[in-house]
Design goal:
By secondary structure, the protein is of the alpha+beta class. It contains nine helices and twelve strands. It is found in: Nucleus.
């Protein structure tokens, strides 16, 4: 048997040094003594466990969850949810101020929505269309504005009201995109939002095809870090540069 290597095959225990003449015998041994090799990994370190309960216990005690906020002791479904939490008011505070009324917001997109929606008490004349007009006049090279031939200003005074004809028996339906709403007020807010207006801004990253109806949408895209152009902290600096250009009537240069 030595010369021909005719020994019977052996089946090893996954944990100890025992060997068996059949896989079923090895399995019986490992079942009886719980000698199965650990296969369930920790999400952060190299440790492995035999049961999900043991893995969860380890990760909970060590804070080893992959998408985990240690400060809040909260776990999140994915990296995007964790990032949104870390960029929320809980961790960022309200450090971005409206240039007109000094109300504080968490993000640049929040300030932009405040101004574009005409909600600022010290700048009631500002809205999405007027802000775009100002930025377009300061952005001849199209750093953030789309280059549009024959652009005409939209009519900001036009508002839409919902009639009973929009109700289909179960939902209130947008006649443009067919999106359904549970209330007429929800549909009315949708119709009077920028969502169906022309896309007038583009992403600052060369090669990113994203275009936006509003400045708030552009900043929201950048804050999400989805295209990798800039980190969340840097978006607030871009917002400040645009504000400074508007208030100082200076040209907007590339970013």
């Amino acid at each position: 048997m030595n010369s021909m290597n005719h020994y019977a095959p052996t089946f090893e225990c996954e944990t100890c040094t025992r060997e068996f003449s059949s896989q079923s015998a090895a399995n019986q041994h490992m079942n009886a003594l719980n000698h199965w090799k650990p296969t369930i990994p920790c999400e952060m370190c190299t440790m492995k466990f035999r049961t999900q309960t043991a893995a969860d216990s380890h990760m909970a005690s060590m804070g080893h969850y992959k998408n985990y906020c240690r400060d809040c002791n909260r776990r999140f479904m994915n990296d995007n949810c964790l990032r949104q939490h870390l960029n929320s008011k809980t961790h960022r505070g309200t450090t971005v101020s409206c240039p007109c009324c000094k109300t504080s917001f968490v993000t640049a997109s929040g300030v932009s929505h405040h101004l574009e929606s005409g909600s600022c008490p010290n700048a009631a004349s500002l809205n999405r269309d007027r802000i775009h007009r100002i930025i377009r006049s300061l952005d001849p090279n199209g750093a953030i504005c789309k280059k549009q031939i024959g652009w005409h200003d939209e009519q900001p005074s036009v508002t839409y009201s919902v009639t009973p004809r929009a109700f289909n028996g179960t939902s209130w339906v947008c006649y443009i995109c067919k999106k359904c709403f549970t209330t007429s007020r929800g549909l009315e807010a949708h119709l009077n939002s920028p969502v169906h207006k022309e896309k007038v801004y583009h992403c600052l990253k060369r090669g990113c095809p994203k275009e936006f109806h509003s400045l708030a949408s552009l900043f929201s895209h950048l804050e999400s870090e989805s295209c990798g152009f800039i980190r969340f902290e840097g978006v607030q600096q871009v917002h400040k540069r645009i504000n400074d250009a508007i208030l100082g009537n200076r040209m907007i240069t590339g970013f």
